[in-house]
Amino acid sequence: MGPRHPRVIGLLVAVACRGGTPAANTAARADSAVTARTWGLAHLQSGQLPQAETEFRKVIALAPDQALGYADLGLVYLRGGRYREAETQLRRAAELDSANSDVALMLAKVYQLTGRADDARQEIERVLRRDSTDIRGLYALSALPGTDRESLLRRIVARAPVNIVARLELIDLLLARGATGDAAGELEALQRKLPQLPREAARFFEGALRAARAGHAAEAAAQATRFDRAMEVTAAYQVGLQRLGGATGPLAGYPVLTFNQSMAVPTEDARAVAAAIRFIDVTAGSGLETVEALPDSLAGSLERGVALATGDYDDDAVEDLYVAGRLFRGDRGRFIETTANAVVAVRGRAVAAAFGDCDNDGRLDLYVATTEGGTVFRNTGGGRFKDVLIPSPATKALFVDLDHDGDLDLFLARPAGSRAYRNMLDGTFQEAGAQMGLAVPGSEGSRDASVGDFDGDGRNDLVVVTAGGGEGGGGHVRYFHNLGQGRFEDATATSGLAKVVGAGAVAVGDYDNDGFLDLFVTSLSGSQATLFHNRGDGTFEPDRRTAGLRQELRGVAGLDAAFLDFDNDGWLDLIVVGKPATPGGRGVFLFRDDETRGFEDVSSILPDSLRAGRAVAVADVDQDGDLDLVVVGWDGRPHVLRNDGGNVNQYVDVRLAALRQGSGKSNAFALGATLELRARDLYQLRQVTDRVTHFGLGRRLKADVLRVRWPNGVSQTVYYPGSEQDVLEQQLLKGSCPFLYVWDGRAFTFATDVMWNSALGMPLGIMGSEGGIASASPRASQEYLRIPSGLLQPRDGRYELRLTEELWETAYLDELHLLVVDHPDSIQLYLNERFAPAGPSALRFYQVAQPRPPVAATDELGNDLLPALRAQDDVYAATLRPTRYQGLTELHDLVLDFGNLAGRDSLFLFLTGWIYPTDASINFALAQSPLSQVVPLHLQVKDRAGVWRTVIPDLGFPAGKNKTIIADLTGKFLSADTRIRIRTNMEVYWDRAFVAATRGASPVTVTTLHPRAADLHYRGFSRMYRKGGRYGPQWYAYDEVSREPAWAPIAGAFTRYGDVLPLLDAPDDRYVIFGPGDETALQFDATPAPALPPGWTRDFVLYTDAWMKDADLNTASGGTVGPLPFHGMSRYPYGSDETYPTDAVHRKFVETYNTRLETRDSGLGARGSYATPESRVPSP
Q: Is 1007 exposed, middle or buried (0-12, 13-18, 19+ CB in 10 A)?
């Protein structure tokens, strides 16, 4: 079933009279209309059009003033090809609800199919006037003659970047008009998000991309057409087509799900709304009837004993099911067993299961634990799996990125002790529980576990229910706080959970909508079930609302529990399953969170026949916009409980998709991400644990803003998300270094990035000498930076610079001055702007009078790179082939031929370009992976036998954006062949290459200017764009600034705003501490610089002594300002044997300047506090 887009809100309950007393006959008619609607939709989903027609006619008879019955009856006729009858019903629906886009688009489809394009256009344009971003309306309009199809497809791609159908059609259009460059860009964008392709499809894709890059439009179009045909049969393509409304036949159109306001009760009757909802047991005929019961020997066991997991493993946007050792494919409300075909049969009784994409190929894999061991089944596509043995049984399995390195690890709760398996991303898992700090003391085992970011630091923490040792055979609750870099600490003693006894299971959810994840812990003894309220810092206290829950659950042995919003009111409700206190009593409970009264027992809306349960899963099984339940009964057999009426309120379903290539920063479906959503006065937070995350909106027509915090900590905002909202990870840098803007005579303009050498606490991506992961040295704090020639100009007798922090970083600026460098205009001056190892920086100018460009330049495939390298013109050599990780590509060569260089002495190679760097978490992943390693830039020449030999093993790399690295070639050539090969797998884009002799010395005058004014203040974040096109570096427009927070806050004491000049005069460990959104405005007196002699020119070099620390989740102490760095430290973070200076001068500095406190609740983290699009304002 495709997406649902109801445009009106209605509550499917009895109509209340104005005085508040419902009329009995009206209530009965409304209830009957609801029932007929529910059955009609079920038949429609199953393709049973005659039965659906009957039910929707009943709806019309019962509610003749409602558009729903006519609209859905029209949809039945549309799917059945009865266009005249469809038009009649849809016209009537449009008369009753003229603002309903679903009705208008179905009517437009009828007009289009009957040859009335003008009528179709009018309907579609009405839809787009109400919402210009409606992708179905845009796609429908693009299919009509006489439209600007390319422009419409571009708008769809911008709004729905995950949808491959629109992008493929756009690529075809671009190639048809010969726009190979644009087509190559779209193919590259598609490449970053596509799941792993079948071999034949991959061959066609690679052929299309190669031909488009080479400018061969006809060949590219032919290959693209073959690729389109290969993709059209895939589930991802069909789902994309359905979401665009492009399907015909049995999948055409969208059902209208809700009645309008005249069928609604007043908002104060929300309890009546919930009471009208019913969960119907639809197991009979579902395909699950054949699941075997548990052995009689387990009848008295308080273990779950049955594996249960839901997930869309075949990528068709329908939930599939694994239960009791059998795999079922979801099919419009029914389940079809695929165990044998999928090759997921197991030995022994399956007792636990979990879906998760552990190899990041865009397909859900499956872990199954049995009584005999465990297996990871890797999804190879086409509905088939390949097994990877994990020799460890479990009672609960979690796919979770424990170390935030971009792939899913595996945590297993086991009676014999928990296990944590680190994903090596080479098809294997390595047990690392003790190394991570997740081993439970002694021989204490575990029975349940849940994950969540409980303290708001962006990292996944764990709550584990231990096995045995407690009341009624239940366990204790242990809380493991994630410290970063794959290390946890047992924080149970201070968490507020240490006194829990007799626990059976734990559920996680923000039930009070305060922005922090809370807990519910069941009791095996039936006496200690407890709600734990999160105080906001990862510590918990029993909620006063526990008393009512505990009373209802008295005597019930709770085996499983889950939070869900079953009535779409925006507040999390609670389902608890277990063994009843007495035979025949109730052991399955549903509690509704009514926001003010606490949780009330509404179990009467559950089937009375289901009295006990062992496990529960929550999913929208029938795809109708409300959450259904799958409950494993006490006998081990599954029951599907369909939610009828839960979609009375609006909702938003969010699906996250990480980039598949050129990123590697998040697992494929972003499990562990945090979602925050605001709809008017309603705020909600959810942790992503499945492919789909469901939000209820209550009676609010739409959501205002959705904020995603990806598993790597980066935030992304979507304004006015739709009810089916796909969010594709944005490719952007969260850390790089502060930015330098200079006054160019007209305005402030971006010059480059600064402080590249001083990355505090960053893993380097290599293993250290003692087996740990090596980190960057803290001693590389000095940097000389060349400001591009001609860029900086005086303004009223002064030079003005701006240093901004716009990424997720903290900067510590200790000393700064500006060097005015005057020299004859017959030479150019260069600095070696390579990323330098630790140690003091020395200023050395390289004078170039006669640069010699290459006569030929190729890559490893023979592609001609010479046009890109002749001049520094923002045209970059860009034939790199991406890998999974940002900053790493396939191994690539730059082969340069400068002609005959034999006999030349004192020869230097100059390479100007930019690097797209890895980050701390990627480096952390690389340090663990045997398959992905950084190959440094190394320079090779030919020996006399014609073999390439390495003569410079490490060239370094450009320290940021548009920097020049310099290599001494003197004595490096080994033969008469003076070609040069530079090889690496780093993501470096070159703009210019030349060689030059630098022996001649021309006079150079250097004048040092110290700042005369420095002011720290908040500014915001400049608009980013790509300089030089899609292969150019990220550049920034100073005059276009957003004031809204762009990053999660960094906690600690920053420098107070105002005058900071006294902190910049010496490297004395008294520095300016500034963070995201801050700017330091600098002024230098220009008058000390001498007048230029005739024939001379002026350059500028900026000197800084500073550190930078990014807030990556795997940067040591990255999320806090402290510990404060100092020049004498030997490592960072330093140990107890070292300390920041504590003398009177430095104490006064801290007390006077470091007074601007930021907490994790500041800015973006302010729960319920959101900026709007209007916060983008011009820069002052």
A: middle
Q: Please give the structure tokens belonging to residue 372.
A: 């005999």
What letter does residue 43 receive in the DSSP assignment? H
Rounded to whole angstroms, how far apart are CA atoms 354 and 364?
10
Tens digits of residue pLDDT in 247-275: 655 556 667 666 665 454 434 466 777 77
| pLDDT tens for each residue of 309-350 | 999 999 888 999 999 999 999 987 789 999 988 888 888 999
Return the number of other C-beta atoms located less than 10 Å from residue 292's C-beta: 12
pLDDT at 171: 95
Quick: pLDDT tens for 974-987.
Answer: 999 999 999 999 99
Closest CA to 1079 of 1014, 984, 1028: 1014
| pLDDT tier, 1166 (very low <50, low <70, confident <90, very high otherwise) | very low
Rounded Cα–Cα distance for residues 68 and 454 (Å) = 43
Confirm if 227 and 245 have CB atoms less than 8 A apart. Answer: no
* Range of weakest confidence among 40-49, 504-513, 790-799, 1079-1088: 40-49
User: For a pLDDT cut of 90, what percent of the chain falls above it?
Assistant: 66
Domain with CATH 2.60.40 in the chain: 650-728
Tens of pLDDT, residues 1119-1128: 999 999 999 9
**In the sheet that 1078-1085 helps form, which strands lie side by side, from edge to edge?**
748-753, 739-743, 798-804, 1078-1085, 1011-1018, 1058-1059
Q: Specify the CATH number of the domain 850-999.
A: 2.60.120.260
Average pLDDT, stretch 876-897? Answer: 93
Report phi then psi at 860, rounded to 5. Answer: -70, -20
* 597: its two tokens: 């009264």
Half-sphere exposure of 1125 (CA within 13 A, CB side): 32
Quote the pTM value: 0.88
CATH 2.60.40 correct for 650-728: yes
* In contact, 438 and 420? CB cutoff 8 Å: yes
Q: Where in the chain is the domain with CATH 1.25.40.10?
A: 1-132+251-265
DSSP 14: P
The answer to whether domain 1-132+251-265 has CATH 2.60.120.1060 is no
CB atoms within 10 A of CB 905: 9
Cα distances from 661 to residues 139, 698, 714, in angstroms, run 27, 38, 17
| CATH 2.60.120.260-classified regions of the chain | 850-999
Q: Enter the tokens of residue 383.
A: 């509905």
